[in-house]
Design brief:
The chain is built from 1 helix and 7 strands, in the order ββββββαβ. The longest helix has 10 residues. It has a 4-stranded mixed sheet with strand order 4-5-6-7, covered by helices on one side. Strands 1-3-2 form a 3-stranded antiparallel sheet, with no helix packed on it.
Length: 142
């Protein structure tokens, strides 16, 4: 089976001696039947987006609870998923994306979210992680 499940063992992903501030997960396969409590990571808040109406895909951000998140964007359709959060203490947007190889748009929602948090004329730091299926891009092989 694909995806991340509760049986995998969160201790393999989280080292409590040196906590990671945030983690991005893609291809989670978590749908609306999977409760947050089933995939909880101790010490982290979970923000997620899953595919509607079909299996696969999905993405999540795990943010250390010491960081306050004041705004989030969760967007998904039958093909793509995006989750983004704004952390004001470090003026940072974290985003993770699952972009299927079957569909070619997605970034407009993320750009609107960035614009919303750039009203003070300074752009927040932005970290975008994920599975963007960039193998579809015609990379120059030379």
């Amino acid at each position: 089976s694909s995806g991340i499940n509760a049986e995998y063992g969160q201790e393999k992903l989280v080292n409590t001696d040196y906590p990671v501030m945030a983690m991005a997960l893609t291809e989670t396969w978590w749908n609306s039947r999977v409760e947050d409590a089933q995939v909880a990571f101790p010490g982290y808040s979970i923000f997620r987006a899953g595919r509607k109406g079909r299996p696969g895909g999905g993405c999540a951000l795990l943010v250390h609870r010491s960081l306050k998140v004041t705004d989030k964007l969760a967007w998904d359709d039958d093909f793509n998923n995006l989750i983004a959060v704004y952390i004001p203490s470090c003026h940072t947007i974290l985003a993770t994306v699952y972009r299927t190889s079957e569909y070619q748009y997605l970034l407009e929602e993320l750009l609107n979210f960035i614009d919303k948090h750039s009203l003070d004329s300074t752009t927040p730091d932005l970290f975008v992680m994920g599975d963007l299926n960039l193998s579809l891009h015609p990379w120059n092989q030379g």
